[in-house]
Every structure is written in structure tokens, then in C-alpha cells.
Amino acid sequence: MALAALQAAHPYAESEAWLERARAVIPLGAQTFSKSVTQLPHGVSPFFAKRAEGCRVWDVDGNVYLDFVNALAAVTLGHGDPDVLAAVRAQLDDGVVFSLSHRLEAEVAERICALVPCAEAVRFGKNGSDATAGAVRVARAYTGRDRVLTCGYHGWQDWNIGVTTRSKGVPRAVRELTKPFPYDDLPALAALLDAHAGEVAAIILEPMNVRPPSPGYLPGVRALADRHGCVLVFDETVTGFRFHEGGAQALFSVTPDLATFGKGLANGFPLSAVAGRRELMAEMEEVFFSFTMGGEAVSLAAAKAVLDKLVREPVIPTLRARGEALASGVRWSLERSGAGGFLSVSGDPTWTFLNFAPPPHVDVWALKTLWLQEIFARGLLSLGTHNLSYAHGPAELLELFGVYDEVFPILAEAVREGDVERRLRCAPLQPLFRVR
Fold it and tell me: Among the options 35, 263, 304, 368, which is catalytic?
């Protein structure tokens, strides 16, 4: 069969060939669960990208997608932002990593301290898990305590992943030192603190994810941390430099002791940060938090360009305004289609979630698989969230609504007729673990 005919018959043929090749040498064939067959249904999904620009991604088969994944929310300005690329190209001429520290380390740290309320000192890592693990280690060193109370997903390291269903390989002794608590439930957190009085080093949570905190919740968490002598850590890996120039802590006017950043800090270049009060961050002069690539200058140059653009241009206000229009349009599409009974939109305008809650006779994973199958076929890339970038404009929102106006009625009919799985051209996804 000619290549054109093969691609017409199977638009993901090249992607699947690369997946087979990758799985021979890479477990799951991907470096991230969210880019693997655990989250992308085999047979109806692209797996390998070739390039990206602005708010578009091209896969290896030549299919073009409107991108609302944005590298798992790491890209806030858009793929290949010209200001970031100019800074990166200039730094490449000088070098990438050196035998001495580079002045960019201080320059980027100064900018974070100027924007983020809790930041009096900063240390850099390469991904969000580095930063959250570093913050927990600092909290343990500062308090002399071992226990951690956690809400939500904070990375792959033992201290956090050990309390999820993906705990294989984590020692029981480590798992027992971490206790999860539910979001937006002060009595539950207070009960855990009372049950482990004098033992808790840190309370760590995303200040917001799927839904906003109830009035008084975040101030209440702050008060409980103070009452029990715990270090309060906000995981701002996603919310930082997306919800507000100073992070969600600035948006909600609640200042933690430590905060962690990643994702959009460098518009997709690998960089993360721990920031916080000087007396806590001073522990890092002895706590071992040290990376050969921690001062890698290309990512720092990208971060400097990002932070300067956030100050110079209305990036966050634009994201918020477009996000509000997006949420309103999606809700209207849901109402028109009849899918509003089992789908809903929530979250911050810059990071909205499409929530699936079908009736008991419909498998939620089969329904989400059908949604993915249909949006991918129409050139929309999402995993269940709308991770906006500065490159998304009004035309792209109309394009999103056009896709949903076609897909939501299909889902509504499938739920009404009870034949969701019959409509699938692949096996339904299986649950990985509950992230939030």
C-alpha cells in the first residue's frame, strides 16, 4: 500500500511504528507516563511529535493539532516563543554548563525574589520533583521532624509516590512517614496534625488545582501550620507564573514558608526552583541539594526571558481573559449538546479541567477514551485540561468550540444509548493513579 493510502487508512501509522521501536529500548516507550499508552489509547492516538510552533504541534505522521496540553502545562508563552529563543541562542554562543557558577543563577533568583511573596532565597533544580523533594528535606532539617502531610501530586520521589497506588519499590518505612489529606477540608487536616502532634515537619499542597479553595481554607492551613510548628509548602509547579506573576500565593494572598516552581518557569526548558524564607533556605548550605545541571545556563537564560516578559507584557491578564472566554464557551457547548449532565468545567481560567462524571452504567475510562479518540481525529490535543498559552488567541478558541460542538453530541448520544464502548476503535484506557 502506498504511504499516502496507508496514512489515510491509519493516520497514526508512523507514530505507532516509532512506539514499537521505542518500546524495544524504553519501558512503556516514553519518558513520562502522561505521554505513554497509559494515557493515550493505542490505535487512535498520536504518540510522537515532530515539531511545535505557537499553539500547534505536528506529529510524525504530519497531522497538525491545536495544542492544549502544552507539554503538560510547561509551555506558558507558546512553543518557540521568539523572545525565549533569542535568549537561548545568544547563551548557546557563550556556553551551556561551566566549571564555575554563572551570573544568570543570581539574575534569575533575583527576579523570582522580586515577584514571589515568600521568596527571599532560591535554589534551582531541573524538574518539579527535584524542587518538592528539596523543600521537604529542608522542612525536615529545619524542624527536626520526619512526618509529611501531603495533598495532591508532588512528583515521583519515594516520600510522595509511596502513598499512591504506584508505590512499587518504595520501602514501607518511607511510606509510613507520609500521610495524605483531602483538599479544602480543614477539620481533616487538623485531625491529622493532632494525631501526630509534634511529629509533622511539613504540610505540602497545591494551593489550587481542579477547583478554587473555599473562603478561609488557605488562611486556615496557614494558621494550622503555625499552631503546630510545621513548615507550609505550596507546590506551585503548575500555578507559579501561570495563575499570577507571583504565583497562586499572590493571587490568594496567603504566603507559605517555602514554594516550589517548575513547568512554565522557563517555557519548557528544564528548570525548577525552591524558594522561601531566608532562615529556612539557609538549611541548604548543609542540606545536600546539588546538581551538575542545576546552574545550566541555557535554561536559566530562557527563564530570565520568561520572567522579564511576564513583567513587560500582559501575559497573565491575557491568559485569564482568554481562559474565562474558553470556560464560558465550553459550558455553552455542553449545555447545547446535552452533555452537561456528565461533563463539567472547573479550575482557574488559565488551567481549566474537563470533569467526567457519567452515570453508574457508563465506565468513566471508556467515556474519556471516546472523547480522546474523537478530539484527536479532529486535530485537538488535550488530556482533559485546557493548559492555555499566550499563543492561544480568539481564533483558536473558536476552533476549540467547533471541535467540542461535534464531539460533545457524540458523547451525549453514547451515554444516552449506553453504547460508549461499542463506539471505540481501541481498547479503553485503564486508571493509572489518582493525581488530584
Answer: 263
Q: What is the mean pLDDT of residues 185-192?
A: 98
Nearest-angstrom CA–CA distance, 385 and 369: 14
Q: Are 298 and 108 in contact (CB under 8 A)?
A: no
Q: Catalytic annotation on 153?
A: yes
Rounded distance, CA 167 to CA 159, Å? 10
| Nearest CA-CA partner of 207 in 152, 262, 272, 273 | 152
Average pLDDT over every residue of 377-399: 98
235 is catalytic: yes
Q: How confident is the model at residue 3 (pLDDT cuts 50, 70, 90)?
A: very low
Which element (helix H / strand E) includes 80? none
d(CA 20, CA 37): 11
Query: Tell me, what DSSP letter sits at residue 77?
Result: S
Report the C-alpha gap between 436 and 421 in whole angstroms.
26
Q: Are 87 and 301 in contact (CB under 8 A)?
A: yes
In angstroms, the CA 149 to CA 138 distance is 15
pLDDT > 80? residue 1 = no
| Marked catalytic residue, from 67, 235, 257, 348 | 235
Q: Contact 418/362 with Cβ under 8 angstroms?
A: yes
pTM, two decimals, is: 0.94
Per-residue pLDDT at 390 exceeds 50: yes
The DSSP code for 293 is T
C-alpha distances out from residue 428 to 41, 321, 353, 364, 370, Å: 7, 35, 20, 10, 8
Task: Note whether 155 and 132 are within 8 A (CB).
Answer: yes
392: closest CA among 59, 84, 77, 86? Answer: 77
Q: Among all chains, which residue has been given the C-alpha cell 541562542?
A: 89
pLDDT band at 435 (very low <50, low <70, confident <90, very high): low
Q: How confident is the model at residue 163 (pLDDT cuts 50, 70, 90)?
A: confident
Q: Which helix (H) or strand (E) holds 199?
A: none
Which member of 153, 217, 390, 404 is catalytic? 153
* Residue 50 falls in the annotated catalytic set: no
Above 50 in pLDDT, residue 42?
A: yes
